[in-house]
Every structure is written in structure tokens, then in C-alpha cells.
Amino acid sequence: MKILYIAPAANPHSIRWIENLYACIGYGVFDITWVSFERPRHEEALSGKNFSVDYIYLPRDFFKLFLTKKDYDFCHVQSLARYLLPLFFLYNHRIRLILTAWGSDIYAARKNRIIKWLQDIMFRQASALTGDSKEMCNCLEDISRSRCVYRINFGTDCNVYKPNSIFLGIPNESVKSGKYILSTRNFYPVYDIGTLIKAYSLLQESQRIEYPLILVGKGPEREVLISLAASLGIKDNLIMPGYIPYNQLPSIYSNCTAYISTALSDAGLAASTAEAMACGALSIVTNVKENSAWVSESLGTGYLFEPGDYISLHKYIHKLICISISERNHISENARRMIYTYSNSVVESAKFLNIINSIKDF
Predict the structure, then answer these.
(1) Helices 310-322 and 193-207: crossing angle, nearest 10°?
(2) Are 156 and 271 in contact (CB under 8 A)?
(3) Span 10-28, mean pLDDT?
(4) Residue 164 domain-assigned?
């Protein structure tokens, strides 16, 4: 199967999508031309499998776009802002086009006139559009006036993301003993990591706990967050390890005291939150978009708080520190069951494969 794949190669979700799709098909060889504005962190992530990958890095390989072959079975674009630009040089009417929108593509990027214009053009050319929430799919239907809109969750590999008592990675005694607060959202304004730092500082003021705050991620607000932690007197309690290989993430999720997402907006359930839940992490997440359908006290899968409300977040973190082992186990099992049942990568990849098969003959 020949695929033109246009997606951020440094994003682990892009790599896992290809791996999960191949696992679903289970035969043959993927001949992939992968166009990206960034390099993958680990190109070996696709080695040793039945993948033949030709990377085109932009802008360095711009002229290579004109030389690439055109006989693809389909083209899949993930992230519909600047990643639509290469389509102007690669797209022709014989290629079946599938576009996958991420939350920021619709809720933020369309405010840019050029991106909105690009999207409107390519939405009309697409054989199928996919989103990972009901609201996203409704928006895509309204914008594109297309009925070929499908809900496909990113999906979580529940064979990889599962409870794991063996801790890997961060050399810290409190961390090794499973006493730490965790966030894996990147350092951008939309993820509002400052709210978590403020909540954690309240926790230190009231309880003086020996639970470090681990912020796994990257982004332009890193120094701002360090300064905020210093001003609140908790800089020494902060661990910012940067990038962690995704094969180590399951153990980090599994052993945390609490996983926190302070995002001001998500499309569907964030991939990182789904991964944490699949590992049995006890989650506290913002009450935005569809999060309440996945995480809530009534479902027994975790806790919700309103965006920016660091006082409520502080109370929920304290609650998770104090609950009994039996309560922790109950929430942990419910969280994993939720993801295994409703956001399993095997199921979501099968849905995507059905879309591919349905557009082949048109």
C-alpha cells in the first residue's frame, strides 16, 4: 500500500498512527512518503517493521516535492494548518484525500485568513474528513458541507499503555516510590500549566508534602513556568525532564499519585489523558469539550475541575493523596476499562481502514 502521509514527524502520535494502522491491516508492506516540517525524534521507531519510509523535510527538501511519485493509494494529512501547504505541490485529483483535523486546526487556526482559505479549498477536494469528537465532526460538517465526516479517535495502544509497577526513567527517590504529581501537556498557553503550578504551591503551603511535581513536555513557556515556580517558592520541588521516550511513559503514568491536565481546550479526549487512564493513572482534568464523558466522579474514572480554578485543583490533588488503596484501585480499574472499551487503537484503526476501503473504488 502506497501512502502519502503529511504530518508532524516529531509528534509521537503521528508515528503511532502509522504503526497502529499497519497492525490493523496485518499484511504487506507500507510504502510511505512522509512529508514533515520537522524530523522525527527517533526514526528507528519505524525500523524493523514492514515500512519503507521516504522522509521529505520542509523547507530543506522543498524541490523534492516536485519529484515525488504520484501513484498513491491515498493521502492522509494530520493537522490542517501549515500541513496543508505541501498539498498544493503534491495533490492531484487521482489521489484519494483524507484530512484529519486536530482541535487547534478548527478552534484556533481558522482565525488566520490564509489557513481558512487553504482549509476551505482542501475540504472540497477531500474524500473523507475525520475528527476525534462529536463537536469537531459537527464543525467539519458545517464548514465543509460534506457528509463524508467520520469520528475517529486517535486511539490508545492498550497493550503498550497498561499498568506497570516497574518504574523507569527519572532518578528521584520520591518518584521511584510512586509519590509524584504528573503532567505531560506541553508548555503552551492553551495547556495552562501555570494553573497546576499554583495549585501545587497551595498544596505545599498547607501540607508540605514530599511529592515532586513532574512536568514532562516542551514549549516556549518553559522559562516562564520556571520563574513562576521560583516566585512561589517551589522551584526545588519541580522536575522538568524534557522529552521522555514513549516506551518509558507507561511506567511514569502507572506510578504517579495523580495525572493532571489543565488544558483550556481539547478536541476530544487528549491522547496523553487517554494514555494515562489506560495505565490506570488517577486523573484530574479540566471540564472542557468532551472530557466529562470520559473522566468524572459519577463515572468513577477521575475528577473534573473548571479551567483555571487552581483552588479546586489543589483540593482534588490532596484528595487523591489521601484516599485509600481500595479507592485508588477502583478508580484505576474504571479508568483503564473506559479507554480499553471506547478508545482502543485497534478498534479506531479498523474504522479508519474501513474509510480507506470505502473510498478506493470511487
Answers:
(1) 60
(2) yes
(3) 76
(4) no
